[in-house]
Amino acid sequence: MVEIPFVRDIKFEYGVTQQVAPGIRRVIAPNQGPFTYTGSGTYIIGEGEVAVIDPGPNFPPHIDAILAGLESGETISHILITHTHMDHSPGAAPLKQATGAKTYAYGPHGGDRGKGDSEEGGDWDFMPDVRVPHGGVVEGKGWSFEGVFTPGHTSNHMCWAWREGKALFTGDHVMGWSTSVIAPPDGDMHAYMDSLRLLLDRDDDIYWPTHGPAILDPKPFVRAFIAHREEREAQIMACLKSDVRYIPAMVKIMYANVAESLHPAAARSVLAHLEHMIETGRVVSSTTPPGQKSLYTAVSQ
After folding, report:
1. Domain contains 5
2. Could you give the CA distance from residue 245 to residue 9 in angstroms, rounded to a whole number?
């Protein structure tokens, strides 16, 4: 069993902006839950003219708290979005209205993969003012961000690398408190695994996820996430070789120690793994596209 070095200890007060590192402030929205942990953390970067990363849900008290977290005379010049789930991007609209700041993201929700059924829900109303490609740079007064395209959790997921601080704001791609939900059709396990490996080639010193505390030793953490997903696929293959070929039956075996209320999310994760295993020639499905009711068969190697 892969041991992931989870970090879950976080001290904060809802509605209060905290200085969590030089040049980084955070205020957490009270939208805590099984997929958001203590809530969505909105980051304020810089001084004077600042950037905001992931304004969170469209919850007026949280928007007010972001604005109250500014020092006298400060303004928000840029709003950066990691991805378009309802706990990350809807707050951009009221924040933009209050400040006039432009929004920056890889793109709108869904790409060409259709509407997913993820637990967080998709923000289909969001359209960035500026689309930033992988490697694109967003600059403000005294700070700059490089867009690091990391599809997988969603097809438009973008991490933001704060170049002056060697810090990566990872959204939901890599979190310290939990693994990320990969829910087809917008979630893509093959893309997610590639996006994890992409981070191993970078030299970021610290990760700041939208949910939970900072990850202080990133690369061992990312390697553990990759190993964990590989272990899940080994479990799926073991099920198939034992003639357990339907997703609900696999979930009962693989997630026997997980609350049944989370089994629907687990089933979507297993489907994402099976899609990846089909793409890589290890499994075949009785239907096209593969789904929750499909029958799966291991390919003889």
Report:
1. no
2. 39
